[in-house]
Design a protein that fits this description.
Layout: E1 6-8, H1 18-30, E2 36-40, H2 50-63, E3 68-73, H3 78-90, E4 94-97, H4 101-111, E5 125-126, E6 129-130, H5 141-149, E7 155-158, H6 160-167, E8 171-174, E9 178-181, E10 191-193, H7 201-211, E11 216-220, H8 226-237, E12 243-247, H9 267-272, H10 277-284
Parallel strand pairs: 1-2, 2-3, 11-12
Antiparallel strand pairs: 4-7, 5-6, 7-10, 8-9
Helix pairs in contact: 1-10, 7-8
The protein binds glutamic acid.
């Protein structure tokens, strides 16, 4: 039998709250003894801060978590992501996108419909927000070359439909929801390298789960849809396919899911108010919240 290796992969953009603790508990409980990793997802240069990374580790240790070392920090592995992008580029599956958010919104409003290659004409947004209308995919080679030569900032987008056709039908398995037919096209042409950092959440998380040998990816329901796209990236890059388990989200007192701004629910705040690690673990719940 294979050993189950799981990970908790927070972004150091704020303090941990009960929702994170729930997620970390869920991951640790599903791991075979000692096979639990902490990974720091710090690719966002504008929002990640070393002091949050230190606070995350301190809070997790206070809660009694133990994780294998060394801890992978995504910002130290940009070359890996670049190599993966180069492979996709060589397969003809990426294109540079020079659009701003505003350009995209204006294009969608002007066209009055979603991208041509999204089957349902009235769908204009996907799990990551607006579906990209394909503007830069249709640039001529010389228009594209001019923009690149002028040093215009650009993201790299995946030709999702072309890639999905190339891969053929794909499935993945969620321990809660069962066998899933992958539908990566719901993302439209997803960004795999952002303008401000030469990777994206989707690429980095998929690559890292593979290179770290994660056998069971656990994370919140809010990222369920992402697994459709990650499955396609695995197929394109020849990466192993882990099992998945998406857990429920913890809601705050207002009924909305907890966010980093809910200070009262931070582990730090609960510690400072005299709660014990056992109490906080119980508050975070040991399984899916009701
Ligand atoms: N870094 C992501 C977050 O903080 C989680 C990534 C994942 O578990 O796939 O939301």
């Amino acid at each position: 039998m294979t050993t189950t290796l799981t990970r908790f992969a927070p972004s150091p953009t704020g303090l941990l709250h009960l929702g994170h603790a729930h997620s970390a508990l869920f991951a640790a409980e599903h791991a075979d003894d000692g096979n639990f990793l902490l990974r720091i997802e710090d690719i966002d240069p504008g929002r990640c801060r070393p002091e949050f990374e230190a606070a995350i580790k301190e809070d997790l240790a206070w809660l009694g978590f133990e994780w294998q070392t060394p801890v992978r920090r995504q910002s130290e592995h940009i070359d890996d992501y670049r190599a993966a992008l180069d492979r996709l580029q060589a397969m003809g599956l990426l294109y540079p996108c020079f659009c701003t958010r505003k350009d995209i919104q204006a294009e969608i409003a002007a066209a009055g419909h979603a991208p041509h290659d999204i089957p349902a004409q009235n769908i204009t947004s996907g799990p990551d927000g607006f579906l990209y209308p394909g503007t830069c995919r249709h640039l001529t080679p010389s228009e594209r070359a001019d923009k690149l030569a002028a040093g215009e900032p650009h993201a790299l987008r995946l030709k999702t439909n072309t890639a999905a056709l190339q891969s053929g039908p794909l499935t993945w398995h969620d321990r809660g929801a069962g066998e899933q037919q992958a539908t990566p096209e719901i993302f439209g042409d997803a960004v795999l390298a952002r303008k401000d950092t030469p990777t994206s959440y989707h690429l980095a998380v998929t690559f890292d789960d593979a290179i770290q040998g994660i056998t069971l990816v656990t994370r919140g329901q809010d990222l369920f849809a992402a697994s459709h796209l990650h499955r396609l990236l695995q197929a394109l890059l020849g990466l192993p396919v882990p099992d998945y388990h998406h857990h429920g989200l913890i809601n705050g007192p207002d009924g909305n899911r907890l966010a980093k701004r809910d200070k009262a629910a931070t582990i730090r705040d609960l510690r400072e108010h005299g709660r014990s690690p056992d109490e906080v673990r119980a508050m975070a719940g040991n399984g899916d919240p009701a």
